[in-house]
Amino acid sequence: MTESTEPIAALAAVAALLATLFFLFRSLPWSRPGPWRRIWALAALGALLFIVAEVPALLDPAQPVGALAHQMALFGAILASLAGFVATYFESRRGAERERALAQTDPLTALRNRGALQARVAQALEGREPFAVLWVDLDAFHLVNDALGSEAGDAVLRRAGQAIGGVGRSVDLAARVGGDAFALFLGSAEAPAVRLVAARVLSELAAIGASLPQAQPLSASFGAALRVDGQTARQILEAAEAAVARASGSGGGHLAYAEEAIVVRLAGAPIVRTRIVASVGDVARFLETASAREDAAGASRSLDDLLANLWYEMRDVIPYDRIGIALLEDKGRILRARWARAAYPERLRISHGYSAPMAGSSLEEVLRRRKPRIISDLSDYLALKPESMPTRLMVEEGVRSSLTCPLLVGDAAVGFMFFSSREPNTYDQLHADTFEHIATLVSAAVARGAVGHAELVASGRVAHT
After folding, report:
1. Counting beta carbons within 10 angstroms of the beta carbon of residue 377, is it exposed (0 to 12), middle (13 to 18) or buried (19 or more)?
2. 304 and 225 fall within a common domain
3. Is pTM beyond 0.70 here?
């Protein structure tokens, strides 16, 4: 090739490259409308600028093809094309992620949809995670639409979705799976926790119904399906949906488990919680009146009555086989058992009068945090703290998990309330949160009763047992 034909050959090569790119982008899906067109536009613009920059150099015979004047234009065109490709690639990736999120989101409630729920269940099955799916079907929701209109009904669905999504823990997934149907993916949840979540959802829905212009009743039926090896994600969702159909057939406010034939009534759960608060408040007011009448014996008896009532009333809210109350004495140095009751016939190893020093006890940390403490397996806990005699006695009694709740009145610690179960892993954060709803009233009532009991001891009317 002669020196005079080199510029022409270079231009021919560039033209051939442009023609190839043109037909490539026209024939592949990249030629469709979208961000990839920007790459073609930038590449074409870069090539055009390259040709424009090349023409003056090619017209100057003193400039060889390999001269810097030629190379700078070429490098500029390559850099422009590369920058356009990188920017468009990342924008396309972000756009794909946005489209994928929108494809898995319910447009009305902004919750996930059924496809996203099924994908999460499949992921949990693949990872062998324990979980439960709780199906929530609003009862007779058409009555809300009939009374308030479809637009107001959509607003209620949005509120219901927010409430249901807010009940689950951060690791859970809430989804709208139908017109008035929702579902929760509950990670590491077992039957007792599922029932508690259902009760909380029912309570939230009742509050929404009470706040509507015409105070429309808002309830739901629930179906639960726990992880079953060998089932697919679709089969588990269908099992939960079939369970909610059985619950709905029993009337509103029921929970059915896919693996069991029984249907549990939940309608009393929010009512029970309200009744607990009202009961504790009534007793607290009575204790105030009794104290004003210097009736210390009445205060002490009322505390026993309160605890006896709570034994029956709280069973639908917090699971337990045993409840104990212990009060702080001697300026917080001693913790003495005041009351205990169990559902099993074995003798209680820690009962009225048992005492232990607070110094060095793990309960000091509970008081410092001022929050309930959960021990999922007391046998494992005892292995870590073999010197803890109260823990050893509870394990000998058959207790396997516990929820320890501090009783506080203002900044002062009164004592502790202990919920215990003979099954491990009974309690979770939902149970702790439930107790905190009534902790102030319980603490005040127990404190009033403790004062009355202390007055009896000081006067010598009862023995300090």
Report:
1. middle
2. no
3. no
